[in-house]
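Worked Example 4.2. Consider the chain below.
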Amino acid sequence: MDSLQKRIHSGDEKALSQLRIEWSHKLSVFALSYVRCSYTAEDLVQDTFIKLWESRQDINKYDSIGAFVYTILKNKCLDYLKHKTIELRYNQQSSSEYINLQANKYALEDESINIITDAQINKALTDAVRKLPRPCRDVFIMSRYNGLKNQEIANELSISVKTVEYHMTRAIAFLKKEMEEYFIFLYFFIMH
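Applying the procedure from the previous section yields the following structure tokens:
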């Protein structure tokens, strides 16, 4: 159990606030991929944090805080989709909307789908970055890990800004392909 997980388990409200700051956007994107409405996704994320706080005594049953939070959110999304599909069927709404909701519901119900943790994404990203050709890897690391701007990288490596942009474009394309199964989460780790 990590320290944030322990602090939440012990009732530390500041730890919950920290978790909200760190995870709200990631969780919203996850929920949005299933419910297709940003307002609903945000509501489900807020409900997730409430449920997390109410059931914080169960947090130690999970390997990581991420697994616990995503499990709660997955169940919240599933409940929402079940309710929405019943509502659509009852109101005889658009069959394509009903089919989409059913497909998302089935995807969330599939027990073979594992919750992907930050640690897994970071490991996959680290492994993928190691496979990059040397110039692309150097530019990517300087940009994404060291926070340097393109001009700073160009100055440090004695190359043009256009060459830096070329290497970044190649690196991101390679990483997207290499990390295909983590596509929905990749945005947070590569694009920012």
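The longest helix spans residues 65-91. The two ends are 28 Å apart (CA to CA). Compare this with Example 4.1 before moving on.
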